[in-house]
Amino acid sequence: MNAFLTAAAFVVLIAAAAYVIHRLNIEHADRIAVHDYSTPRPGRRGRVTPLPPVEPGQSQSPTSSERGDHRDGGRGR
């Protein structure tokens, strides 16, 4: 009988802990949903206007002649 009561108490404690964790996750998700990460905050430095869209045939990455590489021989820089 004593083992049964101990097991029942553990099950109740585990269920209560799972419920508390579930509620905390819901509150955390609600706090995240409130924030708007897509617009810049006023007073922050940096790029405020978005970059123009890239045409399908172009790439924004620099070409090999524009980009510096560690294999170019400039080891002392």
Task: Reconstruct the topology from this structure.
Elements: H1 2-34
- Alpha-beta content class: mainly alpha
Instruction: Report Rg.
Output: 28 Å
Percentage of helical residues?
A: 40-55%
Query: Sheet bearing the most strands, described?
Result: none
The coarse silhouette is elongated
Strand content: under 5%
Number of strands: 0
Taking pLDDT < 50 over at least 5 consecutive residues as the criterion, the unreliable ranges are none
Number of helices: 1
What is the element string, with H for helices and E for strands? H
Give the gist of this structure.
The chain is mostly helical and 77 residues long.
Description:
The structure is a single chain. The chain has 77 residues and is mainly alpha-helical. It is built from 1 helix and no strands. The chain has one helix at 2-34. The longest helix has 33 residues, at 2-34. The radius of gyration is 28 Å and the shape is elongated.
Keywords:
single chain; 77 residues; mainly alpha
